[in-house]
Design a protein that fits this description.
33% strand, single chain, 596 residues, mainly beta, 10-stranded mixed beta sheet, 4 helices, 7-stranded antiparallel beta sheet
Length: 596
């Protein structure tokens, strides 16, 4: 492939339907007794494979970036310092602090970027380094100024699992190097003001580094003035040289109040979008502890949660009275979370795709999102023998899974792609769910960053089955009763923009549509009191595949009896304006009996 880029290639191979080979008994709260293994289950006909750069190509990028001396997202923005100081150029960027090991911060990632521009001259080469954090097995949280305007797919390499920087000869010191499948930065990022400075890189395959979670949207305690926060990075260790640290460093910085930050930086500091930390710099390396160039994109951590992403500071980092400035993660978790959890069937973008089954012959189809419409359908073969099919990603490996219910006995199964063997695996996860009136796979309900499963029993009680991230579940937890008053219960992702999973329910009696806002908690407090957002008569099927439009907000689909399918784009508002004006995406959807 030219340019050394990478992509995920999907090969469709017709595979005959075969009897499912059930795994050995699974120790899970859901599985209670053996099921009728003689009943055939669907076998997905789509084979997935990844096409990634060779290790040699990735090392070439690392070596090129190591030799580079460019600065990611360099800007000419000026910062007005407090009284008595002169204006200084702002650099996106541990002076002070101590060395540490990767064992103390296993989620730390090194982001290396090298573009030789395809020329023999080195004068136009771009090479730079940023930090980042592993926030799921295939996702790296970093700064937008490290991502915007750069083609990470063609030129990037992500190194994890080592506290050492690579050597000039490409020695990775035991680390694991990965390519980048796709990139996202906040759509409102400004290179002038360095506002909304947050981004997510998606890897082509899961890595083993232990993830760290982002803080929640409602977190205020972590930002209280004086709170101790931990900074990690490989950035510059002195204001008088460009040398970055060969070994991971950490430092403890006190969080500063918004008024203190604004006093130092004036209008350059944007309250609510930024947070600053540290003691005021002394004007020299002596007595100063701060983030600096090379720390860009790395995390600021409080209570094992990321509360900030290294964004900017004054040039050379130590000007008297200066503080390190970070993107405030509590503000951006609603925008970043959909990108962290955005598995989709096409794997090529950030848009949720539609999966449907044709009622006449039980053939399954994928219809890839084009934003406000869907592409031509692609066959997934015979999906007879099941009456529930849900799109999800229970193991967070970046490949979309399916949770299905067998019609004959109500047994539940998890179908997931195993990249190492290039095959689909089927695992029973529950027995005798025949009488469950609703089953939903909305994502992470409980706030532990692991996808969960919901079901409503015949008595109308809603249960949470907390996922463990590997297709097994902890003991079920009761939410509350009364859920059989609804003839539809759907959810996949965040409808309100706060980073928490929500549900949409429609009443049997009058077709009123209600929003149940997720709280990130479990049990009876898992969802807030319902909010009426619509009255939807005239529809007989619904679906919530996730973010169809790719704007970071969960969307909804509704079908009329005549077969017209409407897309209701999410607005992120928890009111009657939760959805924008509907868009027709097709008139032939009456032929489908199951929406994934």
């Amino acid at each position: 492939m030219s340019g050394g880029g990478r992509h995920r290639r999907r090969i469709r191979i017709a595979v005959p339907v075969a009897a499912a080979g059930l795994a050995a008994a699974v120790a899970t709260a859901l599985l209670m007794s053996s099921a009728n293994a003689a009943t055939a289950l669907p076998t997905p006909t789509v084979k997935l494979s990844t096409s990634t750069p060779t290790l040699a190509e990735l090392k070439k990028r690392v070596v090129g970036a190591v030799a580079g001396d460019d600065t990611a997202g360099e800007t000419t923005k000026k910062s007005s310092m407090s009284a008595g100081t002169s204006a200084s150029s702002v650099d996106p960027k541990i002076i002070g602090g101590t060395e540490t090991t990767i064992a103390t911060a296993p989620w730390m990632a090194q982001l290396w970027y090298y573009d030789d521009k395809g020329t023999t001259s080195e004068s136009d080469d771009i090479g730079f380094f940023c930090g980042g954090s592993v926030v799921s097995p295939t996702k790296i949280l970093t700064a937008a100024h490290c991502v915007k305007g750069y083609n990470w797919n063609a030129n990037g390499a992500i190194l994890t699992g080592t506290s050492q920087l690579p050597s000039d000869d490409g020695d990775l010191h035991g680390g694991t190097v990965s390519g980048v499948l796709r990139q996202w930065n906040h759509p409102s990022y400004s290179s002038t003001t360095i506002d909304n400075d947050i981004a997510v890189l998606t890897l082509p395959a899961p890595i083993t580094a232990t993830p760290i979670r982002m803080t929640t949207s409602g977190d205020t305690a972590s930002y209280a003035s004086g709170t101790s926060a931990k900074l990690y990075g490989w950035g510059r260790t002195s204001s008088t040289s460009q040398d970055i640290s060969e070994t991971l460093k950490t430092a403890t910085l006190p969080i500063k109040s918004d008024s203190t930050c604004a006093g130092a930086y004036g209008t350059d500091f944007i309250k609510g979008h930024m947070v600053c930390a540290g003691n005021p710099a002394t004007g020299s390396d002596t007595g100063t502890t701060t983030a600096c160039n090379g720390d860009s994109g790395g995390p600021l951590v409080v209570n094992n949660r990321i509360v900030g992403v290294v964004s900017w500071g004054v040039k050379d980092c130590v000007e008297e009275g200066a503080y390190s400035v970070f993107s405030k993660v509590s503000t951006y978790v609603g925008a970043a979370s959909p990108r962290v959890d955005d598995t989709n069937l096409s794997y090529s973008d950030h848009k949720a795709d539609l999966w449907v089954r044709k009622s006449s012959n039980q053939e399954g189809f994928e219809k890839d999102s084009k934003g406000t419409s869907f592409a031509a359908r692609e066959s997934w073969g015979d999906w007879s023998g099941v009456n529930v099919i849900l799109q999800t990603d229970l193991n967070r490996d970046g490949y979309q899974d399916f949770v299905v219910r067998r019609s004959a006995d109500g047994a539940m199964f998890w179908m997931h792609w195993v990249n190492s063997s290039s095959s689909w695996a089927t695992k029973q996860i529950a027995d005798n769910w025949k009488t469950r009136t609703r089953i939903v796979a909305p994502g992470d309900v409980t706030g532990d960053a692991l996808p969960d499963l919901l079901s409503v029993d015949s008595g109308g009680v809603l249960w949470i089955y907390p996922g463990k991230g590997n297709g097994t579940f902890a003991a079920r937890v009761e939410v509350r009763s009364g859920w059989n008053q609804y003839n539809s219960l759907r959810g996949h992702g965040d409808f309100t923009g706060d980073g928490k999973v929500d549900l949409i329910a429609r009443s049997k009696s009058d077709s009123s549509v209600y929003l149940y806002k997720g709280t990130g908690k479990s049990g009876s407090e898992a969802f807030s009191s319902r909010i009426k957002v619509r009255s939807w008569g005239g529809y007989n099927a619904f679906d919530a595949p996730g973010d169809v439009t790719g704007d970071g907000k969960a969307d909804f689909l509704a079908r009329t009896p005549g077969g017209t399918l409407y897309l209701y784009p999410g607005t992120g508002k928890a009111t009657s304006e939760i959805f924008a004006t509907r868009i027709s995406v097709g008139t032939d959807f009456a032929q489908y009996d199951i929406f994934g």
